[in-house]
Amino acid sequence: MKGKTVTVGDITAEPGTIAKGYIKVAKKFDATWYTLPVMIVNGIEAGKNILITGGVHGNEAPGPTAIIQEIPKLDPSRMKGTVICVPVINIEAFEIKRRENLIDCVDMNRASPGSLDKRLTHKRLYFIFEEILPKVQYFLDLHNSGDRIDVLPMGTTRKGAKEDMLDFVMTEGLDIIWEGGIGEPGVLFRDANDRGVLTCSVEIGSVEWQRKVIQNVLKCQEIIEGEPELPNEYRLVVGAPHYSRHGGFWFPKVKMRDEVEKGDVIGSLYDIFGELIEEVSATHPGVVCSIRHYPETNPGNELVGYYEVVRTIKR
Length: 315
Description:
Elements: E1 6-8, E2 11-13, E3 17-27, E4 33-42, E5 45-53, H1 62-70, E6 80-86, H2 91-95, H3 120-132, E7 138-143, E8 149-151, E9 154-157, H4 163-170, E10 176-179, H5 188-194, E11 198-203, H6 207-220, E12 233-238, E13 242-243, E14 248-252, E15 259-260, E16 265-270, E17 276-281, E18 286-292, E19 296-297, E20 302-314
Parallel strand pairs: 5-6, 5-7, 7-11, 9-10, 10-12
Antiparallel strand pairs: 1-2, 3-4, 4-6, 8-18, 9-11, 12-20, 13-20, 14-16, 14-19, 15-18, 16-17, 18-20
Helix pairs in contact: 1-6
C-alpha cells in the first residue's frame, strides 16, 4: 500500500521523499526565531511511523552525531513507513556543550510535556508533544549521561513497563535494560508513553552503538530492510546511580560490567591534599553500568551506577 503525505509544521514530505526544515517555536527580540530542526524521511509504502530525537541535553553529542550519520542515508524509495527526527532539540544548550541552556536553565528531560505559557524549554517540548508525537506510534530518545561519565550501552524503559514496551526496548539490541531510569517527573519517553506511544531511550557513549540502535529499531519495525543484530539474552536491571556525599577527587575501583556485592569498595574520594575523605561501598549487589571518569567531583555528582538484575529475558 502506498504511503501517505506527512506534514510537520510547514514541512511536508510526499511518499518516497525526504523533507527538511524548521518548526518556529518563539520569536526573538531581533525578529528571528527559536526553532526546532526537523527531518522527515517518508517511505514510498505505508508502514510504521517513528520519532527519533537527540540533543535533549546539550552535553550529549553521540545521539545527534549518530542521527546525522544514519538518517540522511535512508532511501525512502525502499522504506515502509516514516522516520521523523529532531537531531538536536536543545540547540542553545548544545552550542555551549551544557546540559541545560543558559536562557532558562531548565533540564529539558524534566520538563515534558511542555507548554507555550512557560519557558523556552517548555515551548520546544510543546511542539514535540503536540505537533510530532500524534503522528507516530514509536519514539526513540537518544542519551549518553553527559561528557564526564562513561556508560555501558543500555536501553531504558519505564518502571513496570508492559510487555509491548519491553518488546520495543529490546529491538534496540542492547543486552542491559534499565527499568525505571530516573524517577523524577517530566521525563520525555515516559510522558510520551502516557500518551499511547511506544517509547524507549538509551544511555550510550559510543556513536557507533547509537548508530546500531537506530538501525536495529528501524529493521525490527520493518521500516527499512535487513536483519537486526540482537542479543540472545537481556538483563533487566533496577536502581539509581550513587551520588557523591562530598566533593573531592574520585578514583573508581571497578570496571564496566563488574559484578559487585553489598559491602564491596567501589571507589574512593580524596581531598586536594591527597587525604582520604571516604571509601564508597556498594549498598546492594549489582552490575556496574556507569562510571564517572572525570576525577574532580562536587557534592551530589554521580559517581557510579551499579544496578541490580531483577529479570533475565531470553529471545
